[in-house]
Amino acid sequence: MTSDTATFDLHRILPLTPEKLWHVMTDAKQREKWGAPDDATVLVVDSSDLREGGQDRHRCGPTDAPDFLVDTRWYHLSAPTRAVFTETLILGGDPAFTSLVTYALTPTEDGTALDISVATSSFSGPDALREVEGGWTGALNKLKAYAEQLLVRH
């Protein structure tokens, strides 16, 4: 078993207040709307316990077969400015990788600066590390589009 690791940071300015963005990023039903990396992939939340020490479970993957399990454990929640959690992707009953993720939300004149830091350990080889970063990048692109839609509706 290999133990490849990587870290990356992502930054976006989103047109929502930190309070509204916090809700969009932490509410299970809201995460289903933007959490998958592209339109051919879905994220389905099976259970959600948004509290420090709480655990979520969701499935992701192709629309017709969201078979990848993800366990999320929440370690720190300081609404609406900071969240720290781990995500473990499970394939066929075995962990493929675990990521430590930190969200930092800072108010700006135009909405919120979102900074995300991800540190990943892959148990399935180095290709998974690129897939994790690509998944986060795609999801944040969808988050930005969703945030812009929400702004137009209000």
The CATH architecture:
2-Layer Sandwich
Strand order of the largest sheet: 1-7-6-5-4-3-2
Number of domains: 1
The oligomeric status of these chains comes to single chain
- Approximately how much helix is present in the residues? 25-40%
Q: Kindly name the structural category.
A: alpha+beta
Overall number of strands: 7
Return the string of H and E elements: EHHEEEEEEH
Largest sheet data: 7 strands, antiparallel
CATH fold-level assignment: Alpha-D-Glucose-1,6-Bisphosphate, Chain A, domain 4
N-C termini distance = 50 Å
Radius of gyration: 15 Å
Our count of helices gives 3
Kindly report the average pLDDT value.
95
Q: Spans with pLDDT under 50 lasting ≥5 residues?
A: none
Q: Rough shape?
A: globular
CATH superfamily: START domain
What does this structure look like?
There is one protein chain. The chain is an alpha+beta fold and 154 residues long. The chain has one domain (4-153): START domain (Alpha-D-Glucose-1,6-Bisphosphate, Chain A, domain 4). The protein is built from 3 helices and 7 strands. The chain has helices at residues 18-26, 28-34, 127-153, and strands at residues 4-14, 41-47, 55-62, 68-78, 82-91, 94-108, 111-122. Strands 1-7-6-5-4-3-2 form a 7-stranded antiparallel β-sheet, covered by helices on one side. Helix 1 (18-26) crosses helix 2. The protein is globular and about 45 Å long. The chain starts with a strand and ends with a helix. The model has no long low-confidence stretch (mean pLDDT 95).
